[in-house]
Write a structure and sequence with these properties.
With 342 residues, the protein is α/β, with parallel strands linked by helices. It is 32% helix and 19% strand. It has eleven helices and twelve strands. The strands form two sheets. It has a ten-stranded mixed beta sheet with strand order 5-1-2-7-6-8-9-10-11-12, sandwiched between helices. The protein has a two-stranded antiparallel ribbon with strand order 3-4. Strand 6, helix 3 and strand 7 form a beta-alpha-beta unit. Helix 5 crosses helix 6. The longest helix is centred in the C-terminal third of the chain and has 19 residues. The chain is globular.
């Protein structure tokens, strides 16, 4: 599988006794959201066609600025999803989980976590979006000192549009598939930029009642930072660019520290304005990519672990997510990790 990626991912092959079905809906009327996938367990045989992990490598070029030949092995991975073309779907999960990925990524980037959720009785809605920053006249940062201006511009010019599109898509899904939302916990999980999008969605959408928010190292945005939310929430933060003592420091000028400080102060402010229970944990030996599939996709070399974190840490993150959803009253923090109190 090339220089970077493993030949196979065992977590993609392990599945439940029931089949996993994926109903993909391509969207053309929106500026940024281009696809929604409804993924669920079923006892109906559909087809033996497996779902490709990556259909379009161009979608990952913002995230991984590497030559195409290095990324091409990702196209060979297959997820154990059988494809459904029909709208006549019966959802039998006890909970509905909505996943929003980060900027420059794809909705399959947390498929190991998604499979665990599906195996534990959740139905899954995966929302896929793409932002062409060059087309939008926004400079996609290449250096650390460009990141905070980029986030500020994205917050003002892009996030409100995506927020309205998310509301429209989910309203349409609730109308078409009420059994995904009625009498069920509806949980939002998001990574990176998706964390800010998800939090604003929770605060601004009245037609769907969300029950939990799980933020995987996501950057929060206004206006929700200043209002907070009223549901239970779990924030899992990286170790590499974040120190809790930065919460009490004056604004840093050194670019990398400034990014980490901006990130943690936004979460701190957001939690101070929120009600209901919340938990904020810093994950030992993690990077921004440890909160996705990448530790399991990359070959287990030291140089790659520095970039994406190791598989044990990624496994610990997934266990936190599952425990917070399925057994919140029994939630315990591993001694390796640090609970941050506000």
């Amino acid at each position: 599988m090339g220089i970077l990626f493993t030949r196979s991912v065992v977590e993609f092959k392990e599945g439940p006794a029931l089949r996993i079905v994926n109903r993909q809906v391509n969207l053309t009327k929106y500026k940024f959201i281009d696809r929604v996938d409804l993924t669920f367990q079923s006892d109906v045989n559909l087809s033996d066609t497996w779902y490709p992990y990556v259909k379009n490598l161009e979608a990952l070029k913002q995230l991984l600025s590497l030559p195409a030949f290095l990324l091409r092995p990702l196209e060979k991975y297959r997820l154990p999803y059988e494809i459904s073309e029909t709208d006549a779907i019966h959802f039998c999960g006890k909970r509905t989980v909505i996943y929003i990925h980060g900027s420059g990524s794809i909705s399959e980037d947390n498929s190991i976590l998604h499979l665990l959720l599906l195996q534990n009785g959740c139905d899954l809605i995966r929302l896929n979006y793409h932002i062409d920053y060059e087309k939008e006249g926004i400079h996609n940062p290449k250096r650390a000192d460009e990141m905070l201006p980029f986030l500020a511009e994205t917050e003002v010019r892009i996030a409100p549009i995506i927020n309205n599109e998310l509301k429209s898509v989910l309203t349409g899904l609730a109308d078409a598939h009420p059994d995904l939302f009625m009498n069920k916990e509806v949980i939002l999980i998001a990574h990176s930029l998706g964390g800010g999008l998800a939090a604003n969605l929770i605060a601004g959408m009245e037609s769907i009642k969300f029950s939990k928010f799980i933020n995987l190292d996501g950057t929060l945005m206004n206006p929700v930072i200043k209002t907070g939310i009223t549901i239970k929430q779990l924030h899992l933060s990286q170790y590499q660019l974040f120190k809790k003592e930065w919460l009490e420091e004056e604004t840093f000028q050194e670019p990398l520290k400034a990014i980490g400080q901006d990130y943690c102060k936004k979460i701190n402010t957001f939690l101070s304005h929120s009600t209901n229970d919340s938990l904020w944990i810093q994950i030992k030996d993690s990077t921004h990519f440890t909160f996705t599939d990448f530790p399991n996709l990359l070959k287990p070399y030291k140089i790659f672990k520095k970039f994406a974190g190791d598989r044990e840490t990624a496994t610990r993150i997934r266990k936190y997510v599952l425990k917070f959803i399925l057994e919140p009253d029994e939630f315990k923090t591993d001694s390796k990790d640090c609970v941050i109190n506000i």
